[in-house]
Amino acid sequence: MRSLRSLAVVPLIVLALAGCAGQDGEGADDAAGATTSQEAGDMTPTDAPLGLVPSDAAGREVSPVDGLTLTVPDGTSEEAPTTDKGMTTAVYRLPGGDAASGLPALQVQEGDLGRGLTEETYFQQQLLEGAGINSDIHRSAEKWPGAAEAVALTWSQSVEEDGGGTHTNDVLQLWLADEQGRTYTVMAVAPEGELDGSAAEDAVLSATLG
Question: Region labeled Disordered — which residues (predicted)?
């Protein structure tokens, strides 16, 4: 299904691999070693902050995971949350999108990744750069109300279509860590050129901890 390719395949695999780093299994130890061998300063985001600020999004408030609320547009549909290896994932499909691709959409995740946000997002950035289908990758430290740490990741993703051809999706992913060390990610995916200033972006920026 094109919807799975568009939303889930690369972002979910990236997150799943990160959550498994350090677990038993071939490749996991190598991935963990690659990050832990870096000096902490080398992992610090160096891109200029985007200056993200909370939005005054219109719609209905939802609590996809414990400790986080969002405001999504009226008419948004919600898929049943799933939990795997301590990571809870919820997906929302926004109204007015493309039925074939399932976009625009939001993906929310929460869990204890066992390491700090700087290290985790550094690892995510390396995975995105190594995948060969992502461009314009940006990683920056941000400030967010109630968060001990916040990092923004953005990129454009080339997606193969069934039957041939490709299209590009734009992705915004906001990473938040609370004072207890719990990690939250709120990600919006939309067709190229349709994310900036959209309801999907507003929904990400409506993220409220606590």
Answer: 24-83
Domain ranges of the chain: 64-209
> What is the rounded (10 degree) CA torsion for 199, 71, 59, 205?
-30
Asked if residues 10 and 17 have their Cβ atoms less than 8 Å apart, the reply is: no
Q: What is the DSSP letter of 144?
A: -
- Say how many residues make up the chain: 210
Q: What is the pTM of this model?
A: 0.83
Q: Which residues contact 196 (CB under 8 A, 6 or more apart)?
A: 170
Residues with Cβ within 8 Å of residue 164, at least 6 apart in sequence: none
**Cβ atoms of residues 16 and 23 within 8 Å:** no
What average pLDDT does the structure give for the chain? 82
Give per-residue pLDDT as tens, 170-204.
Answer: 999 999 999 888 899 999 999 999 999 999 999 99
What would the two tokens of residue 70 be? 């969002």
CA 82 – CA 91 distance, rounded (Å) = 9
- Rounded CA separation 69/38 (Å): 34
34 closest CA partner among 119, 151, 156, 138: 119
Half-sphere exposure of 61 (CA within 13 A, CB side): 7
- Interatomic CA distance for residues 171 and 195, integer angstroms: 8
